[in-house]
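User: Structure please.
Assistant: Input sequence and predicted structure:
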Amino acid sequence: MTSERQITDVVIVGAGFTGLSAALELKQAGINFLLLETRDRVGGRVEAILNGLGERIDSGGQFLCEDMPQLMALAKARGKTFVETYVEGDFITHPPMPAKDAKQTYHGAMAIRERMNGIEPNDPSIEGMSVAAWLEQQHDPIDAKTAFRSMIEGLWCLPMDKVPLWYLIDNDRRITNEVPELQYFLRETMQSLAEDLAGDLGGRVRFGEPVTRIEHGPQGVRVVTGNGVIEARQVLVALPPATAVKLDFAPALPPSLGQALGVWESGAVIKILVRYPKPFWRQRGLSGMVMWRDLPGLFACDASRDAEHAALVVFVGGPLALRWRGLGDAALRAEVTARLQGALGPGAGNVIDFSSRDWIQDRWSGGAYSDLIVDVTARDAERTILAGAPPVHFAASELSPSFPGYVEGAIVAGRITGRKIIAELQSPIATSASGS
């Protein structure tokens, strides 16, 4: 392939929802841009695959709720079909406990979470403290503390002793839904929404084009890819922080920015969709929702499109995912099926398809729903990354003021940074410098 040299106003690195949302802002403002994506698809941590039955299923980010306004509006505008997650019936905790105790345990875990979020992130009494160390100091019943740990490690996919307490409080306060975040999913898949957005961008999306280096150049920046060089006035790195830090920058980023990008770690998650001939759990008065008390990070819920497409989605997060990823496909299927049978009865063994997606150490986006700060001293990391080193900018769901780590957060982050870049390009100084 011959090397090409091109000129544009902005290069966006990464075609997840952050990069797509920023690109749509630029398009609306009439700014020239190219959106470069290493993979052969858009979506980032949102992905769809065909299962063994030939059905297109979400293997990455999937769920949304009415308290996520940007994502809800986009899905409605694109005519997506909302499937309401089935929640009627009993919620199972396993090993089993009386319904009264299960309810009390759940409310106890939520009370711990509310108490945690009542602490100010800059409270000097929590300086240097991990979530695990704080939990150890609490005087709640052991069942409530165990459920809290399972909730935290399942959602954030890292062991609690790695996560700074101040960071989890700050992060969790930005997740403001009052209805369950598993309220809906899209019949056409979340990936189809990313594809629709990319379709609006036409030929400005380039697939199979990994960026290897970002340099200062005569136009502002020079972006080097496997296919050539692109000269641009600005660049937006729309990647999770732990992925962005792996790029080669010349000159090197300011030390404070390099350090801020280096304090993040991706968690671990395996997502599984188990298909059944019928939703047998509903006939037993169960919702299909299961939390395993003896296996923090293991959670299941009903993900049936309808009664003819009965399914359970199983999330394996945190340290448990790291342990189970070494099992191999057959052993993982046997392990998960056995756990489902233990919780929901023998009907859980009548599996007609088992599709798993191991996101651990994914080459292009890390291992879980979100990267997390793992350095207790890195209180300025997000502010430092958001300030960037113009003309080099950074955006990611992790840095969003609302719903960090979710698709909603990615959309918000992309739009904010897209508008910031537009303002810089249209400022009198920038316009004069470009000779426009």
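The mean pLDDT is 94.
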